[in-house]
Amino acid sequence: MSNILIVHAHPEPKSLTSALKDLAVETLTARGHAVQVSDLYAMGWKATADGGDFIAPAHPERLKYASESRHAFANGTQTPDVEAEQQKLLWADAVILSFPLWWFGMPAILKGWVDRVFAYGFAYGVGAHGGERWGDRYGEGVLSGRRAMLLVNIGGREPHYGERGVNGRLDEILWPIQHGVLFYPGMSVLPPFVTYQSDRLGEAGWQDAAASLVRRLDGFFIDAPIPFRCQNGGHYDGQQVLKPGLGAGQTGARLHLVQPGDPEQVLEPSEALAAQEPGRRLAVKA
Q1: Residue 142 has what pLDDT?
Q2: In the chain, where does DSSP find H-type helix?
Q3: Residues paired with 6 in a beta bridge
Q4: Is residue 127 within 8 Å of residue 137, measured between CB atoms?
Q5: 44 in any annotated domain
Q6: How far is C-alpha 101 from the chain's CA centre?
Q7: What is the pTM of this model?
Q8: Domain assignment of residue 43, yes or no
Q9: How many structural domains does the chain have?
């Protein structure tokens, strides 16, 4: 069985978002998985990234957040709340971010969790640079070997987020989170679990959503992830621009998905061995 971290961001325990989070905990636990929940509002999580995040700053005269983050991570002087969340991520085989879509993104408290926990040397700024390689990111990194999924509730109607919908395609809206926050440090990202018209669902709608979520959770370690192109898999040039001939006919976020006819995806020997671990799924190189 696997370890699963749910990072939950909703201020109301009786909300639909919280109810689906509770159902996820119940379902995953019943299947034998170990589950931890970081309920950010209940924890009183500090959302602002500022100088208070550094116990022993290297340069207290002027805050440079990224360099102080690197110093604190390397020297073990991060604040206890940040270090505790990092340890949960390292413990986890899979991560679920549970939140309502507010103004086309995450609630501020969840964005603040990412800002503070995804420290320099932990989630970014890792790996060697040289030639076409710009470090270990986008399919590689400290969090590779883990799966991730968004559990997101939306007040609007589903057609509003379609190909020609007024709000834009949902995969484009969620691109900064799925590709930028989760895939960047190495996690394999499953398609999101989305509930539309979440503020007027009704009992029948709740039953449908609950049944759908249980089915998705049962496939959590089986279903195919979104086929994002890995940065260091040969699809991008030395400027990290997609090479000619790839992504033909695609636009936006879909340019960065592996398409039929693209070079085959291959696991390196070390990754192939790690992929055999129970509950582990590595992001493959394209």
Answers
A1: 94
A2: 16-30, 40-43, 65-75, 80-91, 108-117, 170-173, 175, 202-218, 269-274
A3: 37, 96
A4: yes
A5: yes
A6: 15
A7: 0.87
A8: yes
A9: 1
Measured distance CA(228)–CA(81) in Å, rounded: 31
Give the β-pairing of 129-130 and 133-134. antiparallel
Q: What are phi and psi of 93, to 5 degrees?
A: -90, -20
Q: Domain containing 201: what range?
A: 3-226
3-state secondary structure of 86: helix
Decide: helix, strand or coil at residue 225: coil
The answer as to whether 239 is a domain residue is no
Give dist(CA 244, CA 246) in Å, integer.
6
Checking if the pLDDT of 32 tops 70, the result is yes
We report the CATH number of the domain holding residue 147 as 3.40.50.360
Torsion sign, CA atoms 51, 55, 60, 66: negative
Residues 6+ apart with CB under 8 A from 218: 27, 31
Q: Do 231 and 240 contact (CB within 8 A), yes or no?
A: yes
On whether residue 232 sits in a domain, the answer given is: no
pLDDT at 106 over 70: yes
Question: In this structure, is the dihedral angle defined by the CA atoms of residues 176, 94, 213 and 35, taken in order, positive or negative?
Answer: negative
Per-residue confidence band for 264, with pLDDT thresholds at 50, 70 and 90: low
